[in-house]
Design brief:
alpha/beta, four-stranded parallel β-sheet, four-stranded mixed β-sheet, 8 strands, binds flavin mononucleotide
Length: 436
């Protein structure tokens, strides 16, 4: 791995302990940051161009700068829910280098002038939660957390909160409701958390990887960090590669390298004799791309220009042994199950989509139903309270449009097996429980 990479020490034995972390230079960035005025720390974050690693890719420094000035309680929340299918980078970071996250949080809280912080970790991550608890205690006993940290005017509490295993609690406002002890439902935005977040107070909420990058930005300096990656996608990224590849795992890459280098060079590509059929560039919520797009630079803007997104940086590879109908149906079932049900387009739309895809799968649908599926996805997108609905609609719409021939062939084969005649009209909607 290149010397440029930030997380290269992560496999250092014992790094989860404060002692080893400090021996590797840990908490030096915190000391340096506390010697600067908080405005200078914020400026470093702005200069770094770091974009959020949790999904939306919003500039972290800019988000921190949105928090109002004043003496009210302000909060920093770390999103460690990591529920996006295909994403498992935060787990490795927290497990192997919990102090990197803790240090990043203390610095980020200083920059945003927040004095209370929380890590919201998904319920399934029990081992990582225990490791983090230990790290928080070690940081507290070294004076890195608590009142007047290392003699500065910065004070910070840090509480670890375990979720109960719901995808919607990764959505930032659902997470905040859950953290407040309510059912984890998304809130209407605006107001955004920077103005009214946790307990109605100004709140900076960031992903684990985003916050764990902060000590490196302070170590290198914001402008130096910005030289990594591309102009608009600075830095390095942890990419989780899964699906039909020979070496699935987490890889740290400099943003902007060709996707092919990640899928084939690092993850080994599909088994011999198999080809990539399509790939999700940013978790299961991202519209699928085809082999024609494998040479694109892997960065936020190139993925967006290709009609998809970098999302959480989770690449899922699907080879030519898989059925696109199966993938679409499995994916839609996940989102139906995880929809909180608060808004109609998502609650009904995910359910309709599953029912219609089940009819495609069984051969009871007609090819014209594919137009209805596409139209349902269009009516979900942009019309939900949060983007969970879109997270299903975008990939399903992309699969139906890019692999329409395969969907049609599947229906035809199944119809022949069932002894059904030529399709003449779309499946009556009542038959799938739609609109009745
Ligand atoms: C349904 C849904 C699930 C999400 N799950 C996660 C998650 O598990 N982890 C995460 O960091 N962001 C998740 N997000 C994105 C968060 O809402 C938010 O954008 C992110 O925590 C901001 O951090 P960042 O700017 O550092 O990326 C999810 C969004 C949606 C709509």
């Amino acid at each position: 791995m290149s010397e440029l990479l930030l997380f290269k020490d992560i496999d250092e034995p014992g790094l989860a302990s404060r002692e080893v972390y400090e021996r590797r230079g840990g908490y030096e960035s915190l000391k340096r940051a506390l010697r600067m005025p908080r405005e200078e720390v914020l400026q470093n974050l702005l200069d770094s161009g770091l974009r959020g690693r949790g999904g939306a890719g919003f500039a972290m420094g800019k988000k921190a700068s949105f928090l109002p000035k004043g003496t009210m309680d302000k909060y920093l929340v770390c999103n460690a829910d990591e529920s996006e299918p295909g994403t498992f980078k935060d787990r490795e970071l927290m497990q192997k280098s919990p102090h990197m996250l803790v240090e990043g949080m203390i610095i980020a809280a200083y920059a945003a002038d927040a004095n209370r912080s929380f890590i919201y970790i998904r319920g399934e991550y029990q081992q990582q939660a225990e490791i983090l608890e230990r790290a928080i205690e070690e940081a507290r006993s070294a004076g890195y957390l608590g009142e007047r940290i290392l003699g500065s005017d910065h004070s910070l509490s840090l509480v670890l909160h375990r979720g109960a295993g719901a995808y919607i609690c990764g959505e930032e406002t659902g997470l905040l409701d859950s953290l407040e002890g309510k059912r984890g439902n998304p809130r209407l935005k605006p107001p955004f958390p920077a103005n009214q977040g946790l307990y109605q107070g100004p709140t900076l909420i960031n992903n684990v990887e985003t916050l764990a990058t902060v000590p490196h930005i302070i170590r290198l300096g914001g402008q130096e960090y910005a030289k990594l990656g591309t102009e608009t996608s600075t830095g390095t990224k942890l990419v989780s590669v899964s699906g039909n590849v020979q070496r699935p795992g987490n890889y740290e890459i400099e943003l902007g390298i060709p996707a092919r280098e990640i899928i084939f060079g690092l993850a080994g590509g599909p088994e011999r004799g198999r080809d990539v059929k399509f790939w999700f560039p940013g978790g299961s919520s991202s519209p699928v791309l085809t082999p024609a797009e494998l040479d694109l630079p892997y960065d936020f803007d190139s993925m967006a220009k290709a009609g998809s997104m970098l999302g959480s940086g989770a690449i899922i590879v699907v080879d030519d042994s898989q059925s696109v109908v199966d993938v679409a149906l499995t994916l839609a079932k996940f989102y139906r199950h995880e929809s909180c049900g608060k808004c109609t387009p998502c609650r009904e739309g995910t359910n309709w989509t599953v029912k219609m895809l089940q009819r495609v799968e069984s051969g009871e649908a007609t090819p014209m139903d594919l137009d209805i599926i596409a139209s349902v996805q269009e009516q979900i997108m942009g019309n939900c309270l949060c983007v969970l609905g879109d997270a299903m609609a975008m990939p399903v719409a992309s699969m139906v449009s890019k692999f329409r021939d395969e969907f049609e062939a599947h229906i035809e084969t199944r119809r022949a097996q069932l002894g059904l005649g030529e399709p003449t009209e779309p499946t009556p909607l009542e038959a799938v429980g739609v609109g009745s």
